Amino acid sequence: MGSVHRFSDFAGDDKPIEGKKKRIDEVLNLEITVHDARVKESRYKDEGRSRYMTLQFTIDGDDDPCVLFTGSEVLIGQIGKYREYLPFATKIQKVDRYYTFT
Predict the structure, then answer these.
(1) Are 87 and 78 in contact (CB under 8 A)?
(2) Domain-located, residue 102
(3) pLDDT 10s per residue in the chain (102 long)?
(4) How far is CA 21 from CA 17, 84, 97, in A?
(5) Domain annotation covers residue 41
(6) Which of 43, 51, 59, 68 is the most exposed place for a label (fewest CB within 10 A)?
(7) Is residue 4 included in any domain, yes or no?
(8) Cα–Cα distance between 37 and 54 in angstroms, integer?
(9) Residue 49 — φ and ψ, nearest 5°?
(10) Cα separation, 30 vs 56, whole angstroms
(11) Per the domain annotation, does 11 fall within a domain?
């Protein structure tokens, strides 16, 4: 028998991001630390949403991880542009009809 591979060594993004589920409106304007984010294709493409993001974060002063799901193209774009800075502290704010990191 050859060597045995560990699933965790090659599974990568297949594992779900863990944390207590939060709605985006529950964390608006709170200081959060973003630890991980994954962008995937949405099942709701016919409704104009082609992608969604799973965001893992902690809320200031708490070490328990939380997750939220969003189709916000602005937040998805910001994560794509600044992923190399993870983890980073930020707030999510609603500006008119969209959400943004500040």
Answers:
(1) no
(2) no
(3) 567 877 767 766 667 889 999 999 999 999 999 999 999 987 766 666 689 999 999 998 789 999 999 999 999 999 999 999 999 999 999 999 999 999
(4) 10, 24, 23
(5) yes
(6) 43
(7) no
(8) 6
(9) -110, 110
(10) 14
(11) no
